Amino acid sequence: MKRDAVESERNNNEEVSSVGNRWVFVVMFGVPGLLFIFIAVPVIMDVYNIHSSLAKNIVVFTLFVILMSVLVTVIVRGYRKRRSM
């Protein structure tokens, strides 16, 4: 009985860490971040009349950091999955 519970837990863990779920992670965290950068930040900059190149560089850098963090997360999760097999 305990062995069945362990096998069931193992199957659940395999389903949670499947390849498809990495893309769900990207969609849940990457897409809202990109939408915020591309929609909300320019609106906020216009509302507060910020048109300096420094502010635009900060926005581009923030976009780069978000994209790289999502990319690294997807790569690391894929590497861990392949390594555990």
The proportion of strand residues reads: under 5%
Sketch the topology as an H/E string, one letter per element: HHH
Total number of strands: 0
List unreliable stretches of 5+ residues.
none
The tally of structural domains comes to: 1
What is the count of helical runs? 3
Helix content: over 70%
Distance between the termini: 25 Å
Major sheet attributes: none
Measured on Cα atoms, how large is the radius of gyration?
20 Å
Shape: elongated
Mean pLDDT reading: 75
Structural class, from secondary structure content? mainly alpha
What does this entry look like structurally?
This protein has 85 residues and is an all-alpha fold. The protein has one domain (19-84). It is 89% helix and 0% strand. The chain has three helices and no strands. It starts with a helix and ends with a helix.
